[in-house]
Amino acid sequence: MNLSRRIAGVVALLFISVGARQAAAAPQNSAGGQQEADRATIAKTIQSYMDLWNTHDIHSVAMLYAEDCDFINNFGDVTHGRDAFEKTFSAFMAGPYSATVQSGTVRSVRFLKPDVAAVDVDWEMTGAKNPDGTVRPTRKGIHSLIMMKQASGSWLITIMHVHEFTATPRITPPPVPSATTPAK
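Request: output the structure for the sequence above.
Response:
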């Protein structure tokens, strides 16, 4: 009888252990599935960014940024807020970036929290012009982003740091945002 109790106890522990493992695996599998879906949504957002940039629709590009975003260019200049981003880049799109084409590929996505991701994007830009109208060299680098998931399931850029690997000088003087630049 003592042996029967021991066998029954071992069998019970075995069932509990297997059940606990299966229960623990279920949330991990669903979280992993959600992360893969979020990775795909992030990649689509980055592709939308590039596609919209190439149509020179800076208002639509700006809508991919959080309202309180920070954009830091390769010279360390900070633009805070979606409206300021749109105003600043409207001036560039009307001038030196009017014929630019940008492409990008997501290099990595690291989820810091389920709704916060660090994203690195390899990018290349052609067609930028100097103030005298001459074409600037092809630019290449990495965009380092912090993106946040919205209640709608979309992902917006909260912070973007531009890292450039090519030696392109600053456009001087930079285009000045016009007070009459129409908001879209």
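The domain at 36-164 is CATH 3.10.450.50 (Nuclear Transport Factor 2; Chain: A,).
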